[in-house]
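# step 3/5: fold
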Amino acid sequence: MSDKNNSVRPELVEGWIDVCSINDLIPNSGICALVEQQQVAIFYMPEDNAIYAINNYDPFSNINVLSRGLIGDIKGEPMVSSPIYKQHFSLKTGVCLDDESVKVNAYAIRIEGDRVEVNLEEAA
């Protein structure tokens, strides 16, 4: 009797984890996905052909809300504004643009075919 649990799961090859369909994304907005027990905020900006992933945890309010923030840019840097206290976080690096000593994790993310994949091991 073979044990299929010992085979490599295709969604984990090279650290990439299949998260959702591209159809699940909301243009110019954020969604939250539970990836390996971590809340990941995913932001899709189709006009810029861009997708970003950062941790959903807001270190200022101590709650998981960044996926609900407003997105835009500050001096060309794509960012999300926390819906609680309005700090701005870079969607590329996770660094708080208002206090650079504060940072949330930013993750590598890609669209493969019609699927969205995140790599929690690789920083963006």
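# step 4/5: annotate
The radius of gyration is 15 Å.
# step 5/5: archive (pending)
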